[in-house]
Write a structure and sequence with these properties.
The structure is a single chain. The chain is mainly beta and 1150 residues long. Strand 40 (480-485) and strand 41 form a beta hairpin. Helix 4 (1068-1084) crosses helix 7.
């Protein structure tokens, strides 16, 4: 049976290649845009709190190569210029209606893919927004003139070529020359002579050149202005403001020095200072930023040691005569630095969290360490300094990230907790063990104890015009507590509400009035003089359920009748004489929050749901009826998200006693119910509470866990809250904390707020002391073990650290000798020593980065004590590095180079029991098994399937691969299936030949399996069931459940911090439906950058049996006309397509 998968991104990549700042949304506010893989991530700085609010995550479905911001003359907002592997020059402008960047220019210039001779690797935009240049690594450069047409739409000219054969480009920047012709600078190497003469002398004579290109706007031609030699190790360019803002020119960065260069001016050289902690390692500039002030400017540059320096220029007659370089701060190593007009600095981190700082000072202190170019002489030793924090920057906010991920594992989900994934994150000082789980962030404002456990809770105003709530009403089993809300919250006795009975409902009705419903009837307090009206049911009948809006009240009685009341023109609740008796007890009621609704929803304990009319001419007539899988315990009718104008539909939300939440589309005029989706939210009955968060309608779902149903990016989602389980909740608006919520957890009253509906994954990090490599967990204790490796002063040091999951404390468990490196870690048990837990570690001495060169290799075995400590048992020398270890039937499987072995524990060392050298394998990187079936993944030779025959103590390798996959992760899905990823960003699912698999199972003594190799490998070949390109290197592939009631699926983590899921489709029919949907969406929409989806997802190998779920979800963002067009082609309704897209994520992922 074939495997069909549906790919979803759970967490987009966080490793940014570039970031830019601009006013992209047309509201004059500056936004930060980061390019992360194929995603554009946009953040808006909050000037009051200092936080960065995510406003847009857009997948361009391409490999973004470079992004620049541009303000074309005549336009009112900034645009993005993007180059990608689509081979197009693209200008993106934000569309406020769609909240997406849409292309206004998409000019093809080369083949798709990332090629050294296709432009797009480098991109520079003229500071005045008149032109742009893009260059390839070799030969090609194209320049475009930017302009606007009569509709103020950005247009570009035909590209102007400035190609040069056998030229390598190392950097490209646009210089600031005011309104003179645009000028571009590049760092290039002409290797033409080396092509014909490969001698070392020819190579030594090859020069690196700083080349200036001028785009003549009048002649529409690009000319080379000047070419000057610069040091061979130059690799960094930073333009200096020109025109009226500065002297113009460019900074050139090379090893240990900075060079200022300008046309027709004398170059100025200045050294890069090194701190005392840097040692003797060479220093380079990694990034820089220029910021213009009113009558001045300054430059910030960062060295490869993380030190940030401020550079200022002494200018006379538009000529730089002196350069002053001052120590400014030491920050995490950055990819980009961006300064905003609000006086803040955004640091796009090379690893670890991206950081947002506020300038406290501009570093003008006279006592700060400084280097002056006029006082420094070439040949002098590089200046050194002792870094003292000058406190120029204050950290305001961090964007949590995961890159770089090297290892991961996952915990099983429970009824009260989602799947928690643990990953190694960052490197160096930014190293951490990160735990992520699906939850919305909740900020607790107040928590106070109550005199008992409430059974219900409301907040209410007294008058409809009140801005804030007046009372918090808390109902107990035999009494009601009233809290008055003012500057403080205090209990009161004179509200007019009944205190000696349990309350069923409290509702503000009419202009000024409150209704309190209890078992004995209701009390209506109306008018400013608090006039009280009472209503009581007949003898031996009591009220069981109630629902109300501002003008209507419906009561359900114990005799199964419904009573209907309505506010008349005098503000009195008038009872309608019509009655309706149901055949079973009423369990829940719902009214839309309209001024006057003509529909009422009634749920009964016979597991039915009815929509009845409230029109006077057909009062209580049943319009529609629907059966349920269990009794409904709570109902709500209302909008979700931001209601669409003119829509006739509302959403009927149903909570069942079985712990299931349903959302159904309901026509507000006819009551017709369609497109029902469901979600298991707990093991107890469900209660629904409507909330409005950030002007969006949402539903709080209370069960054994608390969830929030909401709309995010046009997609219906149900996400848990990262908070205590709530028994009761209600929206709350008080003067000290408007737009918040009040809830009851146990016997505590809590006031809290939910502010961010887009950040649905919560991070929890524990800092480490070194760069992590492998992460494992003790099989029983709440302890993690992390292997770390760092290079300090030329020596490599490795250690094992233990992380306590309860206390978050980190302690060093094992420190290895200098130049010993941990390659793999695995918790194991041995049958020979029952009841004891061990840690097996592969160690190599003096090993290079790929572990191909080494001086000695060991497998170290440590016994784990009861408190999680490690004690060395013995070290076993092996001839090649042990790069993979796996527990196997009370022994261990070890990958020693390209050889697979079984070891058992001995007194002085491990005892070799069985081995097999796998043909062509060089370095085994992953081992997994299901029973006696073993899958082995190699660093260059894909996956081989083996069977271990205990009767003869032999491995039988019976199936390997045609394709040489460079594996980075692998796991077995079942006895005959393995899934993994490779270093080129592919995910795949492999199966051995079915006949060979069945034959090897029957072959107990290895006599039936063919011994003849096929294509220099095993006797049969693997079949590729699935193949998909994800544009990140998978470092872990796990078989887990994301939710308690979900199916098992593949979850993978990439080195850039991407977390994705591959959900199994249950039938080929489902696969064909989504395949056709994917095809028609691509036909109806133009790619933002002109990239073809199939060629993108089949970057190296054509896509096989995998649906791009992220692309299918673009259907939810299409206009109604395009949605209808796609639905007609599929012969489906729009609601049916939306339901299927919603359910597959809702039931399996988040």
């Amino acid at each position: 049976m074939s495997v069909f998968l549906y790919s979803l991104t759970l967490l987009p990549p966080q490793a940014a290649s570039v970031s830019v700042v601009g006013a992209f949304f047309g509201d004059k506010r500056q936004y930060i845009v980061m390019a992360c893989g194929s995603w554009l991530r946009v953040y808006r700085p909050d000037l009051e709190s200092g936080a960065l609010e995510p406003v847009l995550n857009q997948n361009l479905f391409c490999s973004i190569r470079m992004v620049r911001a541009v303000r074309v003359p005549g336009t009112s907002k900034d645009a993005l210029v993007v180059t990608s592997d689509a081979g197009t020059f693209t200008v993106l402008v934000h569309n406020a209606k769609l909240n997406q960047f849409r292309p206004t220019v998409c000019e093809p210039y080369g083949k798709s893919g990332v090629r050294r001779s296709v432009p797009g690797q480098y991109l520079a935009v003229d500071p005045k927004g008149r032109a742009a240049m893009t260059a390839s690594v070799e030969k090609h450069k194209l320049s475009y003139v930017l302009n606007i047409d009569g509709d103020s739409k950005i247009v570009v000219s035909s590209p102007l070529e400035s190609h040069a054969a056998r030229r390598l480009v190392f950097a490209l920047e646009a210089l600031d020359v005011g309104y003179d012709n645009p000028l571009f600078a590049t760092l290039e190497v002409d290797y033409a002579e080396c092509d014909f003469n490969t001698s070392p002398a020819t190579y030594a004579k090859t020069e690196k050149l700083l080349v200036y290109y001028e785009l003549d706007l009048s002649l529409n031609v690009v000319v080379k202005r000047l070419s000057v030699p610069v040091p061979r190790d130059s690799a960094f360019l930073l333009p200096i403001p020109g025109g009226k803002d500065g002297p113009s020119g460019v900074l050139v960065g090379y090893t240990d020095y900075i060079l200022y260069h300008k046309l027709s001016a004398r170059p100025i050289q200045i050294p890069i200072p090194r701190s005392n902690a840097t040692g003797t390692q060479p220093l380079h500039l990694t990034c820089g930023v220029v910021h213009k002030l009113k009558n001045a400017f300054f430059v910030l540059v960062q060295s490869s040691a993380g030190d940030v320096f401020k550079i200022t220029f002494d200018v006379e007659d538009d000529v730089v005569v002196n350069i002053v370089l001052k120590y400014f701060a030491t920050l995490p190593l950055a990819v980009c630095l961006n300064i905003l007009k609000s006086g803040t600095l955004f640091l796009t981190a090379d690893s670890g969290s991206h950081k947002y700082y506020r300038f406290e000072k501009l570093g003008d202190d006279d006592d700060a360490f400084a280097v002056v170019s006029s006082q420094w002489h070439p040949g002098s030793p590089p200046p050194q300094f002792a870094p003292v924090d000058p406190q120029n920057l204050e950290l305001l906010y961090e964007i949590p990230t995961l890159h770089y991920v090297t290892s991961a594992y996952a915990d099983e989900p429970t009824l009260k907790d989602s799947m928690k994934m643990h990953l190694t994150s960052g490197r160096g000082a930014e190293s951490a063990v990160a735990s992520i789980h699906n939850a919305l962030e909740v900020m607790e404002i107040v928590r106070t104890p109550l005199p008992g456990r409430p059974i219900n809770l409301w907040t209410t105003k007294v008058a409809s015009a009140d801005e804030f709530d007046k009372y918090i009403v808390i109902s107990f089993s035999d009494a009601t507590l009233i809290l008055e809300v003012g500057e403080t919250v205090e209990e009161i006795k004179d509200s007019g509400l009944i205190l000696h009975a349990s309350t069923i409902l409290v509702q503000q009705m009419g202009l000024v009035g409150l209704v309190q419903v209890h078992e004995g009837g209701f009390r209506h307090i109306r008018g400013t003089n608090r006039q009280i009206d009472e209503w009581k049911p007949q003898h031996n009948v009591y009220v069981t359920r109630a629902v109300a809006n501002s003008r209507q009240l419906v009561l359900a009685l114990s005799n199964r009748e419904i009573k209907y009341f309505e506010i008349d023109s005098n503000g009195l609740l008038r009872e309608y004489t019509e009655k309706k008796t149901f055949g079973s007890a009423i369990t829940a009621l719902a009214l839309p929050a309209a001024v006057k609704s003509n529909l009422l929803c009634v749920a009964c304990d016979d597991s039915t749901l009815r929509i009845v009319s409230l029109k006077s001419e057909d009062m209580f007539d049943t319009l529609t009826m629907q059966g349920l899988s269990a009794t409904a315990s709570s109902l709500h009718i209302g909008p979700l998200g931001k209601p669409a104008e003119g829509s006739a539909n509302l959403f009927l939300n149903v909570g069942l006693s079985s712990g299931v939440y349903l959302r159904t589309v309901m026509n507000q005029f006819t009551g017709e119910m369609t497109s029902t989706v469901s979600k298991v939210v707990g093991a107890s009955r469900v209660k629904l509470v409507p909330l409005t968060i950030a002007e969006e309608h949402t539903i709080l779902v209370l069960s054994s866990r608390t969830w929030l149903a909401h709309v995010s990016e046009n997609r219906f989602e149900v996400n848990p809250l990262g908070y205590d389980t709530l028994d009761q909740a209600f929206p709350f608006s008080g003067e000290p904390c408007p737009d918040s919520q009040v809830g009851v957890s146990g016997e505590d009253l809590c006031i809290f707020s939910i502010e961010n509906l887009t950040q649905k994954i919560q991070f929890d990090k524990v800092a480490l002391h070194g760069s992590p490599r492998k992460l494992v967990r003790h099989p029983q204790l709440p302890v993690q073990y992390v292997s770390e490796t760092d290079t300090q002063h030329g020596n490599r040091r490795s250690r094992l650290e233990a992380v306590d999951l309860n206390t978050k404390e980190v302690s060093e468990a094992v420190s290895l000798e200098i130049d010993e490196r941990v390659l793999t870690v695995e918790p194991v048990e041995f049958l020979a020593r029952p009841g004891e837990h061990y840690l097996a570690i592969g160690v190599a001495k003096h090993a290079d980065a790929l572990s191909t060169q080494f001086s000695d290799c060991f497998i170290c075995v440590y016994v784990i004590s009861e408190d999680g400590g490690l004690e060395l048992v013995h070290r076993t020398r092996v001839e090649q590095p042990a790069t993979a270890i796996r527990a196997f039937d009370g022994r261990i499987l070890a990958g020693i180079g390209g050889t697979l072995r079984i070891y058992d524990i001995g007194k002085k060392q491990l005892l070799k029991k069985c081995e097999l050298e796998l043909r062509g394998f060089q370095q085994i990187v992953r081992i997994d098994h299901e029973g006696d079936r073993i899958a082995v993944a190699d660093s260059v030779q894909s996956v081989c399937f083996l069977s271990y025959k205990s009767a003869i103590n032999k491995f039988l390798a019976f199936s390997d691969d045609f394709i040489a996959r460079h594996c980075t992760a692998m796991t077995m899905l079942d006895y005959d299936t393995a899934a993994g990823g490779d270093k080129f960003g592919n995910l795949w699912v492999l199966r051995p030949d079915q006949q060979a698999s069945e034959l090897v199972d029957k072959d107990e003594f290895g006599s039936l399996v063919k011994k003849e190799p096929k294509l220099q490998g095993a006797s049969s070949k693997n079949e590729c069931e699935c193949h998909f390109y994800v544009q990140d290197i998978p470092m872990a592939v796990l078989r887990v459940k994301l939710q308690f009631a979900a199916r098992e699926m593949l979850v993978w983590a990439g080195i850039q911090g991407t977390v994705g899921a591959l959900v199994p489709l249950l039938s080929k029919k489902d696969y064909e439906f989504f395949l056709q949907l994917q095809k028609h969406i691509a036909a109806e929409t133009m790619s933002s950058v002109g990239r073809n989806l199939l060629t993108y997802r089949g970057y190296y190998v054509p896509v096989r049996h995998v649906i791009d779920g992220d692309f299918c979800e673009q259907y939810l963002r299409l206009s109604q006309q395009k949605q209808q067009a796609v639905a007609q082609k599929l012969d489906r309704s729009v609601d049916d397509i939306v339901k299927r897209l919603t359910e597959i994520r809702l039931h399996n992922a988040f």
